Amino acid sequence: MTFNCTIPVISDLHDTALTARLQHRIDHKTKPLGALGRLEPLALRIGQILGSESPQLEHPQMLVCAADHGLAARGVSAYPSDVTWQMVENFLAGGAAVSVLARQHGLALTVVDCGVARDFALRPAVPGQPQLLVRKVAPGTHDASTGPAMTAAQCAQALANGMDVVRNLPGNALLLGEMGIGNTSVASLLLSRLCGIPLDECTGAGTGLDAAGVARKRAVLAQALQANEGAVEPLDALAALGGFEVATLVGAVLQAASERRVIVVDGFITSAAVLVAARLQPHVLQRCVFAHGSAEPGHAHLLAHLVPHPQARPLLDMGLRLGEGSGAALAWPLLQSACCILREMASFEAAGVATQAA
């Protein structure tokens, strides 16, 4: 496929001097070396991303991208496609898990209709309330088990939409979320194709399929891989196997990374979007913090594939498999705490505390 889309160049954040200053600052806080465990490398990572020894997370944005999938008609999910638009309404009404958590933690919530098979009534933006952006490429993708889910032009449009959405959002932190019945199938397909992992190891129960349902899902996904066997490059695979919301998230990640925003990655589907973005621009991973390890089996394989990048180890392990950005929201206070430690915790010298026993 030929893609008419400009991919931003993501620079290497490696700055030996800044890293040394940050590590010195962390090591000389009033605590034993390493006593704050994984909060310390998290603080280091945020300081590196933001280029500051006293980082401040400002105007954090929760971005939830939603779309429908032609594959859903093949029974790859325990829920009907109508749940996609119904959950979008739930997000906007404030009743979904991500809505509740965004309110709790002061995260601005933006929901993007990337390709939902229903039109939503436009509503005025209200400060402090979730906002809806309509960036619909089409009302759902084609069935990937019979051929490409998207055309190259559609995929490029979704990428451009994601970049444009992030360009127009304030702040220096982006939390990723998604909604789309059938999109664990998309993540499984991308993981299998781009990482060469057997499909059976990439595919789980998603929204709650029983054993027979998982077997049916795997059979359908095998058909999708075969129908698109020539789509092996990242953008080709994304167009052939992906969804509009995943492609929009890829664009959002690329733009956020180019702006040196902290990117908080939720679960399996958003990690698949990061995988594609990183295949296009590897330094994307320097800007990412992985919020949690999903109960979906493919997520562990995906995170393991990102090693040796240390931030591929997720902050939380709570058996989550909801999506929406819920895990990213739950992890958010850890990022805030890491920044507060860097900015506010006293050094041994400033506090007049001895650094070792006499």
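Next protein, fold it too.
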Amino acid sequence: MSFQTGVRSRPDLVVEAADVTDVQRAITQGLPVSAQATGHGAMSSDGGVLINTARLDHVHIDPQARTAEVGAGVTWDGVVREAARHGLAPLSGTSPTVGVAGYTLGGGLSPLSRRYGYAADHVLSVDIVLPSGEHRRVSADDEDLFWALRGAGRSFGVVTSLRFKLFPVDRILGGSLTFDPARFPEVLQHYRKWTDEVPDDLTSALALTNFPDSPGMPPPLRGRKVLRVVVVGGEEPALEPLRRIGVLEDTVRAMRYADIAAVFAEPTTPHGFQGDAVVATDLDPAAAADFADLFDPGAEHAMFLVVHHLGGAMATPPTPANAVGHRDARFLVRATTPVVYPAAAGLGALHSTMIEKLGRGSKRRMLNFLFGDAPQQAATCYDPADHRRLTELKRRIDPTNLIRPARGI
């Protein structure tokens, strides 16, 4: 079962791979191939082979080398727990149930990314079954493929395991500052200015959310509208400019990094969702006033609008370089709505209009933040020269387009 229940797929064959040999057999059937572990980014499709990698679930932590080697079916909660036993942390996402492989191959935006970079920047090797059926461990010696896998890796084969760096992070500042949601345009303006000055070890996101008064919503949130800034890292003095503008609730505290998922409180139960996101070099706070009606608790659908502060170490390409795009972006602006299948008509256009206005017309996107059946293609996620290089490599490695992930090259 996919975590994303808002779209439906009808493959001809589903293979629950227990080992590399199962993956190789599935690929050599001659049918189009896609793979998933948790299905957070699943899209509707018909036909072909769907390889479920959830049973490839090994986790090995080397505390001396500060590395982890994990199977393609592992989710972040398992890696975070094991690394924490040694005072280490991976560049995990905000949700503990997201699969490590898909997240990392698409770039990987972590609460630690302003300090250390994208998760893809710290991959040491990738084990992959190529369209030919060959199982290969790819590292820096294989320059072109290693470059492509770290940022566009789902298009070139089926990954069976990853090896990546861990970081000496045990305790960290984490929590949220809650504001009056009626002040959203004002708070957004303050937030935009505040991010100009914060240190690289402080990651934050501003989120405006409405929860309709309906039976499907959690009782404590039903009929509410919430505006908050989530922060991870940094030091207390860096938060004072935000606190001075009027905080209704302050939950920021020192905590274990292993517990950081509780700060974001991402849903862990499979559900349907539709959304879109753009990366932008700047924000237009004046556009925020145009969205007030969409965040009325009386509206039919819940709406989540989140502005992530990027930059820091993410702005610097790693050595060796990888395919992660748009490193000049300062913000990721995303909108998400929980939906049932099929998604409500017009939601996709509504999301795109909202985030593109707030992002000053940007149409550049990030691969891991294309949700549901939104029509945006992978080309929007990369710089043009990099996309051409990826396309040429895809033609060499997979001339018949056997590997067909959602929004692939």
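About the second fold: The mean pLDDT is 89.
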